[in-house]
Design a protein that fits this description.
Length: about 220
C-alpha cells in the first residue's frame, strides 16, 4: 500500500516542471537528411511494453519497446509518459521490423533521458556500439539530473527481417523520455558496364603500344 502511494506521488511529481520539455527532441536527427527505410518513434510511452509507436512510424513491419528488468513503471506528465525506476537499474529491449531482405543499412538507436543517464553500450542483434552524446541538455531534471540525448550507430548492417536493440540505464533514477529506431539504406557502388571494361582495355592496349614504340626508338 505504501509502495503504491509512493509510485502515485512520484508520478504526480514528474508531471510538473521537470518534464516540461518531454516528448521534444532538442538535437537534430543523427541520420541527417537521409531518407529512412524503416522508422519508429515513441514520444509518449504508454506502457512498459509499448507496441504502438507514435506518428512517424513507417517502413517497418513491427516495432516494440519493452522495459525488461521489472523495475520500471510509467509516469505521466508533459506531452506523454516516461519509464522510470527509483528501486533499480532499468533495462530495455526495442525491436524494429526491417521491411527489406537484401542490401546494407546504417542502423540507429536514439534515446532521450532525464535524470540519470544511459549506459554507453547498446547492442543491435548482439553487436555492440558506443553511444554518441548528441545533446547534453540542461540541468534540472529529477534528483538533480539532466536531460540528455544520445544515439548509437551500426554501419553497413546486412538487411534483417527484425532488428533487436538492447540498452540500459547505469543505475536507478533514469527516466526514459523518448526513443527512435531507424534504418538508412547504404548506396551500393555502381558496377561498370561491359562497354566501360572494353574502353578501359582498349586504352590500356594503346598505352602499351605507345610505350613499346618509344622503347624501340630509344
Amino acid at each position: 500500500m505504501k509502495l503504491s502511494a509512493l509510485v502515485i506521488a512520484l508520478g504526480m511529481a514528474f508531471s510538473g516542471s521537470a518534464f516540461a520539455a518531454a516528448a521534444t527532441w532538442n538535437s537534430a536527427t543523427p541520420w541527417g537528411s537521409e531518407t529512412t527505410a524503416s522508422f519508429a518513434q515513441w514520444s509518449a510511452i504508454e506502457t512498459v511494453n509499448d507496441t504502438t509507436p507514435d506518428a512517424g512510424f513507417s517502413g517497418a513491419t513491427a516495432a516494440s519497446l519493452r522495459e525488461t528488468s521489472g523495475n520500471g513503471f510509467v509516469t505521466g506528465g508533459g506531452l506523454g509518459g516516461n519509464i522510470y525506476s527509483f528501486t533499480g537499474t532499468t533495462t530495455f529491449t526495442a525491436t524494429l521490423g526491417g521491411g527489406a531482405t537484401t542490401g546494407l543499412f546504417d542502423v540507429y538507436l536514439r534515446i532521450g533521458t532525464i535524470g540519470e543517464v544511459a549506459s554507453t553500450t547498446a547492442t543491435l542483434n548482439g553487436a555492440s556500439a558506443t553511444s554518441v552524446v548528441w545533446d547534453g541538455g540542461a540541468a534540472g531534471g529529477p534528483f538533480g539530473g539532466a536531460a540528455q540525448e544520445v544515439y548509437w550507430k551500426w554501419e553497413d548492417v546486412s538487411a534483417a527481417s527484425l532488428y533487436t536493440f538492447n540498452f540500459a540505464a547505469i543505475g536507478p533514477h533514469m527516466s526514459l523520455d523518448q526513443v527512435a529506431l531507424a534504418t538508412v539504406s547504404v548506396p551500393v557502388a555502381a558496377v561498370p558496364e561491359p562497354e566501360s571494361f572494353s574502353l578501359m582495355a582498349l586504352g590500356l592496349g594503346l598505352m602499351a603500344f605507345v610505350a613499346r614504340r618509344s622503347s624501340k626508338k630509344a
